[in-house]
Design brief:
0% strand, 120 residues, mainly alpha
């Protein structure tokens, strides 16, 4: 009976060792799968980033011409407005200076309206 018990214990120890090996292999398998998944995800992210960069560059290139055209149109419009302002300045300069001088030089002395109310 003692030999049978020792044989049973030996069998249990071997089964425990075998179970530990299986658990260790499962852990290694899980770790390897996680590493593979991370690597795959990194590759997919990099491919997606490159694709979006290419799309952005294509979009930017297609709209760059429009931006330049708009800038040229704005520059032309600005030049036209600047010329109009310069012409208006030349045209009205004398009249404005005359009006300013008239206001400064020609003073009509009169009592302030509040002063009249106080004296009444």
């Amino acid at each position: 009976m003692a030999t049978q018990q020792s044989q049973s214990i030996q069998t249990l120890l071997e089964a425990e060792k075998e179970a530990a090996k299986v658990v260790q292999q499962a852990r290694q398998y899980r770790v390897q799968k996680l590493k593979d998944a991370r690597t795959q995800a990194t590759k997919e992210i990099e491919e997606y980033r490159k694709q979006k960069e290419q799309e952005f560059k294509a979009f930017e290139a297609s709209h760059a011409g429009n931006t330049q055209n708009v800038q040229v149109a704005i520059d032309k419009e600005t030049d036209v407005k600047r010329k109009e302002i310069a012409e208006a300045y030349k045209k009205n300069k004398e009249e404005v200076v005359k009006k300013l001088l008239d206001r400064v030089v020609l003073v009509k002395p009169e009592l302030h309206r509040n002063l009249k109310k106080v004296q009444s």
